[in-house]
Amino acid sequence: MTKWWRWRLQLVAICGMAASSALGAAAMAADGGLIEAAKKEGEVVWYSSLIQNQASRPMAAAFERKYPGIKVRVNAGVVSDLTLKLLDEARAGGVRADVSHGGSTFVRLKKAGLVDRYVPDSAADYPSDYKDPEGYWTAEVLSFLVAAINTDIVPPGDAPRSYQDILDPKWRGKIAWTNQMTQGGPPGFIGTVLQSMGRDAGLQYLRKLAQQQIVNVPANQRVVLDQVIAGQYPIALSTFNHHSEISAKKGAPVRWLKIEPVTATLDAVFLLKNAPHPNAGKLFIDFVLSGEGQAVFRAADYIPADPRTPAQIPSLKPEGGNFKVAILPPQMVEEELPDWIKIYNELFK
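^ thats the sequence. predicted structure below, dont judge the formating
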């Protein structure tokens, strides 16, 4: 049993919180003093790797409508580039951003002393697993990695229902996954197995899984899912459940499977240390995590972290879809990812 045992097998039963907390954190107004201080600063600089037209710009516009006089300057880019930009700025005399986000990138920035503690009131009722124990980050959106099948090829009764079902010899050579070495790829799947089964039993399972001759596709999760939809493979592992729902709504022969525990990853939002506009940064984070900000993510087809804000398709979240998850928080990913990659190279490469 690992030190991360407490993170595994979450059945997020937030539904029962509804009546008593309907006016809870998601509806809280920001502190008046913070609003005034933020207005004096006049702007917030947000380094964002979210899809610009889909999420970043709508979020900025919603914040500016709520807090007129405070401009959101979005500096867009991919996660790796924005991380390097922040590290370069720090070496040159100070970061120019107030707020950023990411998963494992957070740990690198924290180690460099670039992240400040801040958890706003709007996140007070978020599950503890969605917040850093030390108060450095809070989850803004969630991702759930699942197995998916082509429903034209796999009859309903034949679809795997458990991790053990994936080991059925009939699936040998017919399962695909991405070859990306991230928490959203095979390493994350390996991490979930080890955390949920324990290391010894987990390794035993993974050795058996390796005998299934899983196809390593040199592409991302969406491409792997598209290949399943096209009939190249009956089953894929480590795909995003919302991708299957989006495709199914368009008529594609695809369904994601609730093989528990489902791997859950977090996109965390955080305040940068010695930010040029710290109060505006805090107010922006408060808004992003509030019911209003989470509704922007919902409208953009992201899965909101706020337990009171359902996804556009409620069954995509544990509380709406009634499935258990194993959360891979940023600190765990940072510490364990090299080991997960090593196991992948030994068994699946």
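Residues 1-27 have pLDDT under 50 and may be disordered.
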